[in-house]
Design a protein that fits this description.
The protein is α+β, with helices and mostly antiparallel strands and about 160 residues long. About 45% of the residues lie in helices and about 25% in strands. The protein folds into 2 domains: about 70 residues, OB fold (Dihydrolipoamide Acetyltransferase, E2P), CATH 2.40.50; about 60 residues, no CATH class. The protein is rod-shaped.
């Protein structure tokens, strides 16, 4: 599922602040790599997700879901910002220490080592963050108030004719 595109589903169960949402397989699996290479039958199955319900959706509501804003910010910082700052600070520390020890290229080595160490721990934390429940209901599209279909004039006249 593409994380940047909100998906549409129906709430089928509520347990406090957690909702179970049923997504249609054909819509929600369009961007999945496994579906593209044929590892799963995405068009014929429905997918059920456990998501956070901050907007107060009820059972039967049609909702859009996406990645929680807090989780998205943590993920971006773990993947991009923290490794970048570790590279910069490692290079600065290597430059200062290299100046005192008369080793001119120590900033390159120390910056690269700092980047590798922080990236290793950062990506491990990202993997843990990815396995947690990071999806949330963004908005309610249809509140299941009008479940009945509207009959056309032809259908109404035909049903009157039969009676």
């Amino acid at each position: 599922m593409k994380p940047s595109i909100p998906e549409i589903g129906t709430v089928i169960r509520l347990q406090g602040d957690i909702a179970t949402v049923m997504l249609r397989g054909g819509e929600s699996c369009k961007g999945c790599g496994q579906a593209k290479i044929g590892l799963c039958n995405a068009a014929s199955t429905n997918m059920m997700l456990t998501v956070k319900n901050h907007v107060g959706a009820k059972v039967g509501d049609t909702v859009t879901i996406g990645i929680d804003k807090e989780i998205k910010a943590k993920g971006y910082s773990l993947a991009f910002i923290i490794p970048l700052f570790s590279l910069i600070f490692g290079a600065l520390a290597g430059h200062i220490v290299g100046k005192h020890l008369s080793m001119p290229s120590l900033e390159v080595v120390s910056g690269f080592i700092a980047l590798l160490l922080v990236s290793f721990f950062s990506f491990r934390r990202l993997k843990i963050l990815d396995s947690s429940s990071s999806m949330a209901i963004k908005s309610v599209i249809s509140d299941n108030r009008f479940n009945e279909s509207v009959e056309s004039d032809e259908v109404r006249r035909y049903s009157e004719y039969l009676v």
